Amino acid sequence: MNSVGQGYAAAPVPRRAAKPEVWLWIAQRASAALLAVCVLVHLFTIIYAVRHGLTGEAILGRTRGNTAGLTFYIVYVLAIAVHAPIGLRSLCQEWLGWRSASLNWFVAALALALFVFGLRAAWAVFVAPV
Amino acid sequence: MKNDYRARNHPAWWAFLLHRLSGLALSLFLPFHFLALGQALQGEARLDSLLRWTEQPLVKFAEVTLLLLLAAHLTGGLRLLALEFLPWRDWQKSLLAWAAGAALAVGLAFALAL
Amino acid sequence: MLQVSVWRGDASGGYRTYEVPRQDSQSVLDVVTYIQRNIDPTLSYRFACRVGMCGACAMTVNGVARWTCRTHVSKVVKGNAIQIAPLANLPVVKDLVTDMREFFDKWARALGRFFPRATRKDDFARVDSASPERVAANAGIECIGCAVCYASCDVVSWNPEYLGPAALNRAWTLVNDVRDVSRRERLAAIAGDAGCHACHTHLSCSERCPKGITPTAAIAGLKRATALAAWKGEL
Fold this sequence. Notes:
Chain A has 130 residues and is an all-alpha fold. Chain A has four helices and no strands. Chain B is mainly α. Chain B has helices at 5-8, 11-38, 44-53, 57-85, 95-113. Helices cover 79% and strands 0% of the residues of chain B. In chain B, helix 2 (11-38) packs across helix 4 and helix 4 packs antiparallel against helix 5 (95-113). Classes of the chains: A mainly alpha (130), B mainly alpha (114), C alpha+beta (235).
């Protein structure tokens, strides 16, 4: 159904350049929905932790060897590594006027850094032996 | 001609600003958060000394602020998801009020838990 | 007496103050007209219908984009002062007149025109007015292209390529027009950093639209439509 009406000027078919931003939007909203759940769980976890002891021993006593906790936080870190850089990308474009290709590299680097350091933190809290 | 604050002085715009600034603040905080938690790699004692450092009033205040920003970003984000995915209704302006209320409630819960 | 501060000159101009007699029933357009007819005939401004139908008299009044013919002085006056400037986000030609070309160029870039599937040889299209698509289209077709929304949008200010709320609203009405044949091309045209994905739901457009249209809702629809099309490999 791509043909335009006969006898009328054909609609110019734009290049497919718009596609990446559509996927960024989808990724941003999907990670947002996931983070809504993760953040709520995290908030309740922190409130629980505050009430039940915030010493290193108390926390690590609860978390070390906790595979469910590790899985949860890996998912959480992944979601953050997707969500935050895309949000910052818009901010950089609009408030810093940064629109060149280097912005996308910066954003990708940010995502990687968040992922690596987040994974390291999750490992430290849930796996690493005392 | 450029717009100034007079063109922006309506609730939905303030909601946007809060959402963007809270997101920025959280993004700046996260690397420190990951680095701090990563200290657990060096054992309980290391984590413990870091946690004792966070007991200073100024740090506690910063923590509560971050919690409020997180709650605001979350509820503001849920509002945006509703605006973008649900059929448009006029009551969506009051979504802002619900979002603000929820954010405050969570922030207070944390502050009280302290 | 009203103290009326009016922008004179082009982008590098400035405000000049005029004293205008205050009336009980007075629109901002009345004020501008008074200045041009009685004080300074060199003042340039646009208007046409004077009755809130054409949108030509749109200007920035005390920092907010409005139709001046439908703005009562009593509604906006601060003490006895009013500030009148040309619409924001558009090049200033002279005084209160802006160059609207980019506004309409973006309309065209968003494929904001109708591409019919049928020819004059075909029968009339049958469109159910209660169908979701037609309801969605009807919500936005009253737009008269006055550029108040465009002038109110900060994304337009921050992103020179951004198509803007009016063009995107028009695109949405056509995406929902079952008689139109260019849905795929149009979705491709309005997707991306210059299109609907740049909207951050400031809602300034919807707040200011004199016809009560909600471009933000249209743009949200475009976001969903482009996402679905991309997911199905149609974009």
